[in-house]
Write a sequence for this structure.
């Protein structure tokens, strides 16, 4: 997940200030258009990507306030802007959905049936949805006439396979009912989440233990799934001036006949090297990192890649594995999409494109050891490792030895985005949900499958929505969906029940109440989370500061990393580093690494650095360490399974801090500080 500085609210702006900063991916293109900059000519070929007014050749000049009011990065709640109607103006919409479906798919159907038009994204046509599926046979999925098949992730637990794909929204219910499809889940958005790093992890060759000879990670592939790769920074070049990047897959790029998974653009090492001969290598290649903006300095992905595997040729400070081969996937910003600029968001890809990115990197690596770094995540989900995304992550690393996925723990500690409690038998429980502005939000709650909770949503002015009984949903709006409440019974992946609530922007600020009523004679425990919003984070009035790991950070097989400050003698934990355990009680994160005030490569400079903080910066330090471990093991003719690798990381971890014996786990530091 992204560094905390990316999550802080923007500083106050003077009304009328003009803006020319870029937002990632789709939003960056929109910002360029509305700020008076011409879009690249290639964008005009992306039919449906933007409304015609944005693609018009005439320059458009808007103030920053105009841009933020129409294209502000926002939660993919998939509900419409309420146009300041207020809570009392909303009514139940006469649309129906299959209550057994994934809540996001229910909402997609409600949007479609209320007349909302879809628009194309990087990987979907208009009115398609990206999905992860659990299927009985691969052939049935690949041959299905309604399916654009994506990646095969691996075998599922028990039976069948995990796959990705795109399907028409109006065929969702039909596919979900087919016997060959065991489960179907909509894409879920994900967000981004050196000297001291090298020293604290023991990655300086001079400090290696006797007999440990990793050769800088030579022969190992480090894959980075993030945004903004500056291939022209000298930290990613060899001494002869050629690129250390074996390939870049820009998922937002214009597709070619050989595009991975049928979308985006792949750039080979030869194409990257050829671009170096031009005065502007970014223009020559047709790809480059976004320029700096008032909101950030240097792209997230360039910084992350340098920590893991930069060689210091430009900056003078190498990363952890400076001889490793690099592969970068610039993840696209997509979700279940709708027409218009107001739905563009700052999510660094969705869960489907995330899994396809990892599959691509492992395929490119072939027989070579490979570690993939994911410094991104999301708050929603069951947080027990059972989601299809997490099962897909597990399947990708269990299929072969010498395969690892490292995930940032997240930066949600202190954000107030998790709470938990107990609804007494036949009693009720009120959860306070504060909306600091009229930005809306997304709420998700999980509880045991043998219990039943009824839910009612109460607006700050006392307007009541519901109650919604288990196994039903409630779409509310004027003509389009403004609030959506879904109550799922017996989730197919874990048997638990879930409640999802989406509230659009401009409904009402203040404290909302989620009222739970126990319909059984047994006490019912629950955990609830609020989805991350980088601009105006809603929060619980009575948060519980545990279980704040990002949802993909609760995968069973991924290595999850917390962050501490490696510059201070006491090595204090990073203030915002998320807290374990998982909802099912497993001990994550496994380890922690330096993640505060980390200086690493700054994009759009050939040798400069910039400072960033977060578990996003800690995760690549561990990815680099894993590359060194793989390289040393390969030299000795050894393979490492993901479980053997985890045990080795924990065995080598240093303590004090955290206090306690070697087997003592800390909810934020893990089993210790990652070290060679």
């Amino acid at each position: 997940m992204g560094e905390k500085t990316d999550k802080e609210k923007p500083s106050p702006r003077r009304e009328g200030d003009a803006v020319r900063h870029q937002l990632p991916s789709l939003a960056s293109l929109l910002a360029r258009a509305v700020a008076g900059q011409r879009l690249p000519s290639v964008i005009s070929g992306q039919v449906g990507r933007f409304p015609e007014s944005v693609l018009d050749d005439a320059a458009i000049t808007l103030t920053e306030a105009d841009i933020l009011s129409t294209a502000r990065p926002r939660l993919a709640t998939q509900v419409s802007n309420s146009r300041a109607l207020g809570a009392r103006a909303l009514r139940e919409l006469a649309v129906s959905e299959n209550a057994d479906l994934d809540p996001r798919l229910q909402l997609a159907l409600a949007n479609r049936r209320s007349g909302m038009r879809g628009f194309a994204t990087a990987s979907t046509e208009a009115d398609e949805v990206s999905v992860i599926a659990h299927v009985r046979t691969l052939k049935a999925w690949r041959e299905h006439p309604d399916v654009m098949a994506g990646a095969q992730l691996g075998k599922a637990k028990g039976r069948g396979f995990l796959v990705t794909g795109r399907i028409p929204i109006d065929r969702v219910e039909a596919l979900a009912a087919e016997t060959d499809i065991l489960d179907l889940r909509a894409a879920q958005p994900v967000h981004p989440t050196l000297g001291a790093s090298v020293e604290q992890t023991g990655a300086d060759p001079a400090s290696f233990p006797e007999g440990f000879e990793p050769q800088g990670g030579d022969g190992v592939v480090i894959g980075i799934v993030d945004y903004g790769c500056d291939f022209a920074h000298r930290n990613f070049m060899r001494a002869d001036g050629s690129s250390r990047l074996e390939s870049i897959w820009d998922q937002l790029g214009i597709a070619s006949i050989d595009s991975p998974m049928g979308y985006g653009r792949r750039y080979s090492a030869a194409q990257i090297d050829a671009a170096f001969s031009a005065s502007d290598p970014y223009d020559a290649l047709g790809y480059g990192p976004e320029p700096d903006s008032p909101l950030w300095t240097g792209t997230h992905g360039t910084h992350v890649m340098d920590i893991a595997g930069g060689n210091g040729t430009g900056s003078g400070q190498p990363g952890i594995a400076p001889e490793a081969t690099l592969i970068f996937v610039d993840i696209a910003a997509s979700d279940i999409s709708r027409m218009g600029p107001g739905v563009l968001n700052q999510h660094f890809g969705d869960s489907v494109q995330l899994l396809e990115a990892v599959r691509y990197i492992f395929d490119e690596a072939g027989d070579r050891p490979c570690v993939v770094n994911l410094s991104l995540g999301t708050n929603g989900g069951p947080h027990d490792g059972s989601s299809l995304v997490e099962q897909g992550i597990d399947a990708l690393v269990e299929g072969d030895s010498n395969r690892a996925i490292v995930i940032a723990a997240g930066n949600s500690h202190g954000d107030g985005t998790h709470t938990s409690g107990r609804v007494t038998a036949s009693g009720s429980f009120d959860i306070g949900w504060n909306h600091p502005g009229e930005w809306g939000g997304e709420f998700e709650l999980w509880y045991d499958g043998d219990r039943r909770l009824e839910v009612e949503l109460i607006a700050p002015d006392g307007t009541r929505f519901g109650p919604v009984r288990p196994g039903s949903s409630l779409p509310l709006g004027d003509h389009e969906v403004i609030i959506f409440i879904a109550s799922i019974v017996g989730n197919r992946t874990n048997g638990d029940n879930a409640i999802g609530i989406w509230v659009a922007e401009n409904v009402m600020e203040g404290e909302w109440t989620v009222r739970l009523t126990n319909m059984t004679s047994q006490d019912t425990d629950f955990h609830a989370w609020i989805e991350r919003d980088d601009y105006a984070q809603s929060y619980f009035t009575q948060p519980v500061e545990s279980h704040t790991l990002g949802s993909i950070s609760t995968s069973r097989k991924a290595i999850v990393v917390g962050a501490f400050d490696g510059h201070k003698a006491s090595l204090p934990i990073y203030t915002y580093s998320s807290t374990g355990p998982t909802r099912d009680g497993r001990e994550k994160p496994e380890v922690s690494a330096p993640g505060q005030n980390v200086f690493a490569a700054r994009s759009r400079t050939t040798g400069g650095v910039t400072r960033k903080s977060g578990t996003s910066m800690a995760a690549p330090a561990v990815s680099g360490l894993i590359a060194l471990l793989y390289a040393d093991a390969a030299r000795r003719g050894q393979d490492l399974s993901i479980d053997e690798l985890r045990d080795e990381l924990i065995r080598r971890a240093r303590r004090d801090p955290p206090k306690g014996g070697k087997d003592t786990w800390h909810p934020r530091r893990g089993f210790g500080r990652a070290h060679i």
